[in-house]
Every structure is written in structure tokens, then in C-alpha cells.
Amino acid sequence: MPAVTATTSIPATGGWSRRKLLAATAALGATAAAGLAPSRAATGAILTRAVPSTGEMLPVVGMGSWITFNVGADAALRKQRVEVLRTFFARGGTVVDSSPMYGTSEEVIGHCLERMDEVPSLFAASKVWTWFTASGESQMAESRRLWGVARFDLMQVHNLLNWEGHLETLMADKAAGRVRHIGITTSHGRRHDEFEAVMRNQPIDFVQFTYNILDREAESRLLPLAAERGLAVIVNRPFRRKGLFDRFARHPLPEWAGEIDCANWAQFFLKFIVSHPAVTCAIPATTRVDHMEENMGALHGRLPDAAMRARMVRYVEGL
Amino acid sequence: MLSFTAEVYFSLLARYNADIWPAQIPAGALALAVLVLAWRGRPASGGIIAAMLGAMWLWTGVIFHWFHFATISFTAPAIAALFAVQGLLLLWRGVARGKPAVASPPGLAGRVGAALATGALVLSPVLAELAGPGWRSAELVGVAPGATALLTVGLFIACDGRAPRYLLVVPLIWSAAAVAAAWFLDSPALMALPALTACGAMLALASVPERAGRTGAR
After folding, report:
1. Total H helices, total E strands in chain B
2. With contacts defined as CB-CB under 8 Å, which chain B residues touch A104?
3. Which of A34, A183, A261, B212 is 20 to 30 A from residue A306's alpha carbon, by CA?
């Protein structure tokens, strides 16, 4: 399995103001327009972005596991998922995200990890999801057992469920070295006011929420706030599950998609997301190796600048 | 919001059917006995039928939803609780009260109810074979939700107003949720039984009992 060696870093946005963020978007575009971002063919480098609180570099495309890795005890489906995860790592992925809410997903991820010849670099992210503070520790211990990891790189409070109680536990765990980063999640645009309040007032490293080319509510408040507060951003539902493909895949990619090195719709949607300067990574989920290949292609080549991003939005909204 | 695909659900059903084998045989025999008792229409049978149905709902709630379905769905514990409540209500109604009885001789409602109840025994394996992944993944009566709910609602209709309407609450809630789930999963094979259950439950709620001339006890 090829090791991840070359990376192209995109500046982290920790502590930046909204104005700086906008400037960064323009600068990023200028870099892309100037052809300074390496193409996949030219260098094989992958696009990474720093976690603001620690400086750790993460590939801008990770992997989610909602639905896709919840395959129960089915041996054939588990075998397929092993290949999906193998492809993910082989193409330079590191961030894998799951939750105890996702049925057997954590167990299946552990099953797949056991079968990897080598895992170049896993950034293991899961969640705590229980009403009760007291049962949070045992749930996280069970998650570690299922994944087969000694500690998680990131533990998030799922959908803000009992976030007051769990964040207290997570802060103690982080201080004791039992987890490296902590965060909160939401999805489908839910509870953004409360989410924003936690972002403003709690010492977290990561936030995770929904953002895609059609669901852009996060652009107005959450993304600028994440940049201002120095929080890493994981984006879920980058394809609206598969809704974006259902709606747009029958249409041709615009010819100018080649200007940002997009060969398919998956890369078009993902590059829109990860080109936002406040985004650390997007976590598409898939059951198929060919789709994983497409997704991971977004780790390479040029990214859209602000003008191109606006053009991308206009194009899909006009279809 | 479902956390699994139809493919995974069918796989779970196949494994469940293998795990509980041969429990499907006594469950099917129990369902057949329920149909025979219902068709005979003796007043004393009402309690026995309700108790038998109660046992099926309890099994499905505890064994299927709690121990099997819960491995892939975070909603399963709540559904398990609903099924347990329905099972206990039926047991209470059947054992403690000895009621209700089915209508005898059967009127139109009785025939519709009998057709639905009979369908509960045979539709699932047929649908699984023709429109689904094969008979091994069938939701069989007495041990899986779809067929058990349809059998119950069919018999409720056959009671022609003699059964208390609160016994329809759980089947109605479950069938509405199951229809939505089948729609989300894009699976006609999973849609049929809950859709029939929902239609039957609404028909039962909307219908006026035909009590005149009936010999069944109330």
C-alpha cells in the first residue's frame, strides 16, 4: 500500500476574521488560477488542510460511514467494505468518521481495519451519543473496542445530545490524553443557534455540520465563526446523501469543470465544499470502490476560487 | 431517517430466520390455528385468539426488534417497546377479559378481514421470492412484524366492531412508519404488508359495526 508522502497544504483559518476569510478565498482562487496548485498528474500530491488547534494536516476528503458501513454480519457486504476502505487509504485518505448511532458501522470499520495490510495514517473520529453523561465513558470505551484503536483522534458529541455533560467528560479525557481532539456535530441544518453558542463558548477543536452546493446556510454564520474561533470543520452530507446525484447526474458536467480538475460530479461537489477556506475536510460515504475512487480524486488538482465557486452554484441552480 | 439499506435489512432477515429456525413452524401453526378459530366464530374463541396474537407481538418485539433489528437500527428499541405494549394489551384482553369474539357468520367485513389475515400467512414468502431477495428473507407470521401486524388487523376487521379500537393504535403507528421506511428504501417487497395493514386499520376505524344478527358475544 503506498504511503502518503507528498501533500499540498492549504492554510488553516484558525483565528481569522471574516474579512481575512474572504481574502483567503480570493487568494486561494488566485493560486489556483495561477496554476500553482499541483495537478494530480503532475505531482500526485494531495490537498490537505491544518487542524487550527494543533496544526495537524488532514487530507481534505475523508470518509463517512452513515448507512454505508452498517452492513450487520453479512460476510459478502463486509468484504466489499474492506475494499472500499482499502481504496480510501490507498488514495491518501485518513479521516474516518462514525458513531454508535450508525448500527454496526463501528464494528464493521474495526473489521475492515483488521484486514488492512497496512494503515498508512488513520485519523479515527467517532461520537458519543447517549442521553446520560454517566454512560458516555462506557459507550466510548465500547467504540474503541469496536474500532480496535487505543484512543480516538477525535471524539464528538453527536447532534448536541447532552452536550453539556459529555463535553465535560471529553475535556477531562483530552486533558488526560485519552482523546486528541474534541468537538460537536449536527446535520441537516438543525439547531444552528445552539450549535453556534457552543462554538463561541466551549474549548473545542472540531465542529461537524452539513454543507454542500445546495445547502449553503453554513456560509452565513457557522463557517465564518469556525474560522474566527480557530475550529476545524468537518462537512457531512456533501452529496445530500445521494440527492445531488439524483438531481444533477443526468446532466453533463460543464466544460469548464476541467479548469478545476473535476472529471465527474462527485469531484465537482466535493471541490466546491473543500475550496471554502474554513472547511477542513468533507466526509462523503459510499459502498462502492469506483465511487471511492471518484471521491478521492477531489484530493488532487486545482480548487475553485470565489468567482468559480459562484459560477458552480449558478450552474447547478440553473439545471 | 434510516441507518441501513434494503439489502442490509434483507440480509438481517435471512440471518434472523436462520437463527430462530425452527420457531417459524410453531409460529405458523399458531397463526393457522388463530384463523381456524376465527372462522368458526365461537364467542369463547375471542380470548384465545387475542392471547395467541399477544404472544406473537411479544416475540416479535423482544426477539426480532430488540435482539436482532436493534443491531442495525437505533429506532428498534422504541419499536420493540411498542410491540411489547401491543402484546401485553392483547394478552390482557384475551386472558383477563376473554374478549373480543369474531363475528359469526362473517359479513362483508368478516370476509375482508379473513382475506387480509390469510394474506398475512402467505404474502410475505411469495413477495420475498418474487419481488425481494428470496424466501429466506421473508417476514414470516408470528415472528416478524409485517405479517404479524397484518394478521392482527385482519382479525380486528373480522371482529366487526367487537374489538376495542385501542388495539389498533400500535398497528396503525407501526404500519405508517413501515410504509415510510419501505418508501425510503425503495422496496415494494417491504411496502406491501405494512400498506395493507395501514389500509385495513383505517378501514376498521372508519367502518360502522354490523351487529344485527350476529351471534358473537360482545
Report:
1. 8, 0
2. 71-72
3. A183
Tell me the shortest Cα–Cα distance from A71 to chain B, in angstroms: 5
**pLDDT single digits (tens) B142-169:** 999 999 999 999 988 887 666 788 899 9
Predicted confidence at residue B94, as pLDDT, reads 79
Q: In which residue are the cell numbers 488532487 written? A: A300
- CA B94/CA B83 separation, integer angstroms: 16
Dist. CA A236–CA A222, nearest whole Å: 14
Out of B4, B11, B71, the one facing A67 most closely (by C-beta) is B4
A10 pLDDT above the threshold of 60? no
A11: contact with B, CB 8 A cutoff = no
Residue B159 zone, left/alpha/beta (φ > 0; ψ -120 to 50; rest): alpha
* CB contact A147 to B (< 8 Å): no
DSSP letters spanning A89-141 = HHTT--EEE--TTSTTHHHHHHHHHHT-S--S--EEEEEE--S-STTHHHHHH
DSSP string over B76-118: HHHHHHHHHHHHHHHHIIIIII------SS--HHHHHHHHHHH
Express each pLDDT in B60-86 by its tens digit: 999 999 999 999 999 999 999 999 999
| Cα A233 versus chain centre, distance | 7
**Eight-class DSSP state of A55:** -
Task: Decide if B4 and A66 are in contact by the 8 Å CB cutoff.
Answer: no
* Alpha helix positions (H), chain A: 18-33, 40-43, 75-90, 105-114, 136-147, 163-175, 192-201, 222-229, 243-248, 265-274, 289-296, 306-317
Q: Cβ neighbours of residue B59 under 8 Å, at least 6 residues apart?
A: B23, B27, B87, B142, B143
CA B156 – CA B177 distance, rounded (Å): 20
Check whether A39 has a pLDDT greater than 50: no
Note the ipTM here: 0.85
- Lowest average pLDDT, out of A248-252, B10-14, B131-135, goes to B131-135
Please identify which residue in the block is written with the cell numbers 428498534: B76
Q: Would you tell me which residues 105-124 of chain A have a C-beta closer than 8 angstroms to some C-beta of chain B?
A: 105
pLDDT in tens, A287-318: 999 999 999 999 999 999 999 999 999 999 99
